Target: D-amino-acid oxidase
Amino acid sequence: MSAQGGSSIVVVGAGVFGLTTAVRLAEAGLKVRVIAGAPPGETASGVAAGMLAPAFETALDPPGGASLPLMLAARDLWPALAERLGVALDRSGAAAAGPAGWLDDLEVRLATLGLQPEAVGRADLEAWAPGMNPVFGRGLMTREDWRIEPRLALAALVSRLTELGGRIDHEVLSAEAALAIQAPLVLATGIDQRLSRLAPELAALEPIKGQILHRNDRPGPARVIRTEGAYALASGGGLLAGATMEAGRADRIPDRGAQAGLRSAIAGLFPSLPTAGWRTRVGVRAASPDGLPLAGCSGREGLFLAVGARRNGWLLAPLVADIVTAAVTGKDGGPWASRLDPSRFARDDGEGRA
Ligand SMILES: Cc1cc2nc3c(=O)[nH]c(=O)nc-3n(C[C@H](O)[C@H](O)[C@H](O)COP(=O)(O)OP(=O)(O)OC[C@H]3O[C@@H](n4cnc5c(N)ncnc54)[C@H](O)[C@@H]3O)c2cc1C
Model:
């Protein structure tokens, strides 16, 4: 079954996956209703740093970046989307600085991926990030990594959807209520398992709690700076430092103990920064076993999935939205659709059924 222009569809979830997919579906001519428990700004998407970072993510988080070409393909969909949304895309690049052994290792990893970072000296590092540890005498810089401001982009996605005739209702949907909906359904529910009765594929997702620190009394660096165990960037007029990766944790409670590694990495980057004065934001990522999303048809007729973004939901959202829109409208999902097929983790019951 495929939905054609003019037919109705419901998207559950108003994070970056839900809203980007909703916008793509509306652009394809469908009547889109989004149902979401949390307002967009209070989702993992609203907490995120907004890095669109195929290079450093592939090098620094191998489980999430198993495929550099896929990550680059997703990133390259951003300029057109950002233009349609009217949001700024920061394409100035990102830099890395840190202990010599870590930086050398990163350089080798980038080179192995076929990426050639530029070598930058102390003067550039100091200009981009005043107060950076003077021990860090050199750095690496890549123009492959970009950034978007998540809260502005979420607001722009909501505006674009509304402009295209879509609407958003705030409600936590139960499995019973979801089953009663007489329209194709896209689940973009992040880590939430309330609807896993409808889509057993969701059981493959594991939570990874992420705590990110923000302070308004210092401006952030002019470029995203990666260091061993942390990154720092400018956001909302202040400094954002992230992020913890707490596998298996799905609570949204700030936990100072689990921030120790992150705080120490940021103190190593900016030694004169006061240790007090940080505010914590928490989000929970949803990760599949291979670190890539589940995007496309579920095993259930009329049900589609856009979940499992791990660390790269912002980067991957336009690709996921295109693949899901193609699945809904019965079109070819393109070269990455099979890689993100939601059935890839389903167990075979011995009779060829998942
Ligand atoms: C600290 C941190 C930093 C990050 N930094 C980056 C980054 O720099 N770059 C990047 O690309 N990614 C980053 N990420 C990852 C990114 O934030 C996530 O991958 C992405 O936001 C996931 O988006 P999503 O739409 O799948 O889920 P979410 O944003 O979690 O949204 C899920 C939505 O589903 C709704 N929902 C769930 N169940 C129901 C239900 N039963 N009924 C109704 N609504 C329901 C929720 O209310 C919500 O609206 C970061 C994540 C964290 C935590």
Summary: The two ends are 20 Å apart (CA to CA). Residues 313-329 form the longest helix (17 residues).
